[in-house]
Design brief:
Elements (H helix, E strand, L loop, with lengths): L8 H11 L10 H8 L2 E4 L2 E4 L4 H5 L3 H5 L5 H15 L5 H4 L5 H9 L6 H11 L11 H11 L7 H8 L6
Antiparallel strand pairs: 1-2
């Protein structure tokens, strides 16, 4: 299975907010956001929707975003983060050139609602940084533990230490 990637860092950020602490199956509420806030294209009788642009999400109310099936808190995070991006703080696409992942995580962590897990997911899916490891993810730690520690539970720091030998893989 290939890791999903997104053409822009903003699309990854939007998707990452939706995926926080829920199953990936439920995370497909992103389609509701696209239908409500994204641009519509009708081609050969078929209707297609684009990801919403930051300006569209920033100018929407948290309640409208909440109406797409997201918690009010996530809706607020999306609206506020989108406004910051519209204002150019931060420049998500420019972050792709940062050499150090810690610098990217630090800048993304300044956005309310984004922590290390979300920042690493954005790096992986939106910046195609294949060396990003979502070590705070319980499922990933379980798999690493199974193969490297005979199933003994491990902490995020230990997962990161084990993964260092993997390099960009």
């Amino acid at each position: 299975m290939n890791q999903p990637t997104y053409p822009t860092v903003y699309e990854s950020l939007l998707n990452s907010f939706v995926e926080q602490q829920i199953s990936v199956k439920v995370a497909h509420k992103i389609e509701k956001l696209a239908r409500k806030f994204g641009q519509k294209l009708i081609l050969d009788g078929n209707t297609y929707y684009a990801y919403p642009a930051p300006k569209d999400m920033a100018s929407s109310s948290s309640e409208d975003i909440h109406g797409c099936g997201l918690s009010l808190r996530k809706a607020e995070y999306i609206q506020q983060a989108s406004q910051l991006i519209v204002d150019g703080k931060p420049d998500l696409e420019h972050m792709k050139i940062h050499k150090r992942p810690e610098q990217i995580i630090s800048e993304l962590d300044d956005i309310k609602g984004i922590g290390v897990w979300t920042a690493e997911l954005i790096m992986l899916e939106g910046m195609q940084r294949l060396g990003a490891l979502l070590a705070d993810d319980f499922g990933i730690r379980q798999v690493i533990s199974r193969y490297y520690r005979d199933g003994t539970p491990i902490k995020s720091a230990e997962a990161r230490e084990i993964a260092k030998v993997w390099g960009k893989f």
